[in-house]
Amino acid sequence: MINLLSNIDKKILSAEDVLQNFILFNLASSFREIDKELLFYRKNTNSILASNEITQIQQNIQAHDEAIAIIQNLAQENKNLFNEKITKLFIYQLEICKQYIFLNLLRVQNRLTIRDKIQYFYKKRHKIKRILYRIFGMIYT
Questions:
Q1: Residue 83 backbone dihedrals phi, psi, to 5 degrees
Q2: pLDDT, tens digit, for every residue of 101-127?
Q3: CB-CB contact of 25 with 93 (8 Å)
Q4: Closest among 89, 73, 71 to 16, alpha carbons compared
Q5: 88 vs 1, 3, 46, CA distance in Å?
Q6: Which of the chain's termini has less CB crowding within 10 Å, N or C?
Q7: Same structural domain, 74 and 130
Q8: Per-residue pLDDT averaged across 129-139, rounded?
Q9: Are 118 and 141 in contact (CB under 8 A)?
């Protein structure tokens, strides 16, 4: 099943971990929550996600579109291997991330509307809640 990703002929610039986890989640027979963090992300100022250059932000949006298309194609071509709910969850998460990146593009281009600014504010608020949850174990909604 891991060989399914070997058919991809494009270089994946972003969301490669999402594609890997999509495969792994579908391989799993069950899930279990643990109270310890196993993976710590560090801020990478050279990351494509941290860039404020318009062309790189646009490339990142395109990379997310490509990741969504790869997941959709894998699920469509291998219906017996991929859970439909997991597929929808991963696509939904990529779409949300892509929306945040698009808001950043509008911010860099100074094209944010009032509605966009509210969305951008709630994105930051949600990120702060996630950090608080990780640090203090607080539940966020």
A1: -75, 130
A2: 998 898 899 988 887 777 777 776 666
A3: no
A4: 71
A5: 19, 22, 31
A6: C
A7: no
A8: 57
A9: no
